[in-house]
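ARCHIVE RECORD
Type: protein–small molecule complex
Small molecule: flavin-adenine dinucleotide
Source of inputs: curated submission
Record status: active
Notes field left blank by submitter.
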Amino acid sequence: MPLVLNEEQNMLKDAAKDFCTNSTPISQLRGLRDDTSETGFDTDTWQQMVELGWAGITIPEDFGGLGFGYLGMGVVMEECGRTLTASPLLATAVLGAGAILHGGSDELKGELLPQVAGGELLLALAVEETPHHNPYGATTTAEKSGDGYKVTGSKKFVLDGHVANKIVVVARTSGNAGDRDGLTLVLVDSGAGVNVTRTIMADSRNAANIEFSGVQGVLLGEEGKGADVLDKVLDAGRILLSAEMLGGVQECFERTVEYLKVREQFGVPIGSFQGLKHRAAQMFCEVELSKSVVLEALSSLDDDSEQVGELASLAKARLNDTYNLVSSEGVQMHGGIGMTDEYEIGFFMKRSRVCEHSLGNSAFHRDRYGVIQGY
Amino acid sequence: MTALDEFRLETRSWLAANCPASMRVSVPEDQIVGGGKRQVYENPEAKIWLDNMASKGWTAPTWPSEYGGGGLSKDEFLVLQDEMMRINARAPISGMGFSMIGPTLLDYGTEEQKREHLPKIVSGEIRWCQGYSEPGAGSDLASLQTKCEDKGDHYSVNGQKVWTSGAQYADWIYTLVRTEPQAPKHEGISFVLIDMAQPGVTVKPILLISGNSPFCETFFDDATVRKDGLVGQLNRGWTVGKRLLQHERSSISGLSSGGKKGRYDDMGKLSNIAVEYIGKDSGKLADPALRDAVIQNELNQRAFGLTQQRSMAESDKGETATFATSMFKYYGSETGKERLELQLKAMGTQSLGWEGQDFGDNERTLTRTWLRSKAGSIAGGSSEIQLNIIAKRVLGLPD
Ligand SMILES: Cc1cc2nc3c(=O)[nH]c(=O)nc-3n(C[C@H](O)[C@H](O)[C@H](O)COP(=O)(O)OP(=O)(O)OC[C@H]3O[C@@H](n4cnc5c(N)ncnc54)[C@H](O)[C@@H]3O)c2cc1C
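STRUCTURE (tokenized, with ligand):
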């Protein structure tokens, strides 16, 4: 629990900042949107990220990764968040790779994780079936078949599901929707028996609705005990997504404060009005608290601490609310220009809301935190 | 074993031997020791505990040992805090000597001033109070009018201070006074130290909404200040006074526990209290709206504590970064007030008892603590003033 970055992590952060500022400014996301890019991210950029080692930051060296830990991945995600960089990093390197790392056999890990680190394999995690995050809500079934499982059902809002080569499906082998027991994770190829419909979201990023019709896959973790792996994967995802959100929060806030200094009305900079000053100062506090919870949560992943779950909920709930606040105020304090597509501040608001509804909104995480704390 | 591990073990066994049993329970409000010549020790162990700690300089752990302090490094200080928390040892003494004037003298005092005043703070012999605010100078502190004139071999002070916390118990008062009436308001102020044991200083307690009188009006009628009682340069007292305010704000925000303990956690955890008074339904606090608010407050407290720890980790001396003080003052006092409001909601009418047998000690204490908590966002510069400071000094927004 150091709460400060070490030298190596700081160097990685600087490198990531350079890369994102130069190679993936928000104009890239705008271009991808306007050209209705098929992947929703720039494949050359992704290749460069892979060359920088980012796809394998959290993958152990034994499996072809850097083994650099979650704080390392966090600083990269944070910088990506500042420029709203579109990439399959979260879906592939955190969610998909995490499920294989925690649930796969050594053989499977040896086969697939190097491909993830090498950028050849894209992954996705199919968990949701309704418009709200519900990790144990699966009605999609998995049935034992040969040495694997057949998966049937439909999933929604599968992040980057439209480009994934393989998909981790949260399915049910027993029990009812909502039960933690009876969940089973199955890794399937995206091909025959998998019908993918791309959904373009407001933030110009992509997800997919996916139908699985009896597709054969391999088991990750234990049958009926998939939640043990799933919880770990989701918590890592929540924390790394919070790290991305932290980048967006800071960038959006800094741009807004800058605007308060340059925009003049009534003959003075609008930042001299106390009505705006106090709101900006309050946001500053929320941003500082956000930095601390993300750092603490990332360290807990590196330490494999018992508190990962509560810290994931602490981080995600706070970043949901702070990103929502800062991006809404960002638009408001820019006035009319903040409403235009040409100006970039609105991109942060759109991204913030998609992030907010990914992997649990604040109500979900507050409830979860209370349950973990025993009330 | 590292030197720090060794220090931990030594500290642990020293505390085991030297912290009396009755000092290992949360301290009731009326038994907090502030020191000074008028201090009465209802529990004799409180005095023993104070003397033991003072003998090691651990009442002011990080002050240099030549002034009676503990001379501890930041890391050692954190270990001491940890170890005290481990056995629930209370602070042996606290007050403005430790949190405000002491650190300020370390920054700005002359060698003689440090040698005269700091050891007496460490030992608890002298208690200090703060004479800043006046009837006409609150948030706009620099408009203060209390006059201080050079009388050759001494200064003479005339005027009135107000809201002087603990003046009725204090031995000395540090004061902002006007020494140059013609100068622009920030440039004619000096910072002086006044011995209160003289006929020219009188105090009159003021009753608060909490039913206590923790603060006073303080009157100066030809009060004498020694020539060496001036801290910093003549007419440059504003700089000294502002530095002191930073120390004050750190202490109001609850930073003294190093972010490891919530401000009102001595009363018990909010969620536990809520469960005790409301009960559970299917494992969750039975009032869902209150539950959500309680969780939100606990999340904010936790994020706040982590931010205090981060700020200490970022600075090598273990002090709060300057920029952060106003944030901690603002956020800490607001979150603390909110916690107590939620505690009222959780305890219902049992939270509003004033007197009598229908209410437990804890319940009556809460009523008063709740009322007193409202001062957190007023004293030491109000929340609005802290937001002004953040906007100006941190965000660089124009006046
Ligand atoms: C419990 C307690 C203990 C105290 N102890 C001491 C002590 O020991 N020594 C001492 O010297 N003083 C002490 N004080 C005084 C304290 O510092 C002042 O109360 C405080 O600075 C506010 O000044 P004021 O009371 O004159 O309020 P005012 O300055 O009159 O403020 C009234 C309201 O106006 C707002 N306001 C004022 N200016 C602005 C602005 N520029 N922008 C926006 N809003 C503004 C304030 O935030 C507040 O809400 C204590 C106060 C309390 C409550």
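CURATOR ANNOTATION: The mean pLDDT of chain B is 93.
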